[in-house]
Amino acid sequence: MLMLEKTFPLSSKMRISVDHEKLGNFSQSHVKFYLKYSSFVFRALKKPSFQKFLHWMLKKEKIEEQTIMDVHVKVLPFRRKNGKGVAGKCDTVRGRIRIYPKTMKFCQIFTRKFGRNTLLVYAGNRARAALIHELLHLKYAEDEKTVRELAKDYFYVFAQRQPAQSSKALCIYTMIFTAKSVEKKLLQASQTIQVQG
Ligand SMILES: [Zn+2]
């Protein structure tokens, strides 16, 4: 009915999912942490203000919402064989998008340095940036350079539109798009702490 038009179709294609066979590789406290993380990220991605923004972006990019089959917020982190963490993946043929968390270790170091509230803002916005990025892959496929540039621009537009009290999103923007150096610094800091401790 007409009322359905007011909800965003993408929102109904989102799920939290876990690879049960991988659960055994994680301790109970890790699983508990990742379950909390994923439900927080899931809520951040489903927020109407963000869904509305995605709807606008998809329209602007002429990406048909039907090309998206599903978006899964994965509970457990995923690492490439080279050890690098993955924020998201997109199967452009099937239209399947996967969003992955940061590791618990990263979050602990981050929290020590910036506090829990900043971690939550960071985690939510990192997932948003990842979803924007993966959605753009549906159109630009293997063109990583274009996807990265556009994702950065679009995330900036989103962050700027947020009300003042969540203007932290703009600081997080800098963090996410310079994430590599932040991560490096954090790891160095943790190593120093370990050495000192
Ligand atoms: Zn990419």
Would you kindly provide a written description of the structure presented here, covering whatever features stand out?
The chain is α/β, with parallel strands linked by helices. It is 60% helix and 9% strand. The chain has 8 helices and 4 strands; from the N terminus they run βαααβββααααα. It has helices at residues 20-23, 28-46, 48-60, 104-114, 116-140, 144-161, 168-177, 179-196, and strands spanning 14-17, 70-74, 88-91, 96-99. A 4-stranded mixed beta sheet has the order 1-2-4-3, covered by helices on one side. Strand 3 and strand 4 (96-99) form a beta hairpin. Helix 4 (104-114) crosses helix 5, helix 5 (116-140) packs across helix 6 (144-161) and helix 6 packs antiparallel against helix 7. The N and C termini lie far apart (63 Å). The model is unreliable at 1-5 (pLDDT under 50). The structure holds zinc ion. Zinc ion is lined by residues 133, 137, 144, 147.
pLDDT < 50 stretches? 1-5
Q: What structural class do helix, strand and pairing data support? A: alpha/beta
The portion of residues assigned to helices is 55-70%
How much beta, percentage-wise?
5-15%
Extended strand count:
4
End-to-end separation: 63 Å
CA-based shape: globular
What is the N-to-C order of secondary-structure elements (H for helix, E for strand)?
EHHHEEEHHHHH
How is the main sheet built?
A: 4 strands, mixed
- Integer average pLDDT: 87
Q: Radius of gyration, Cα only, in angstroms?
A: 17 Å
How are strands sequenced across the largest beta sheet? Answer: 1-2-4-3
Bound molecules: zinc ion
How many helices in DSSP terms?
Answer: 8
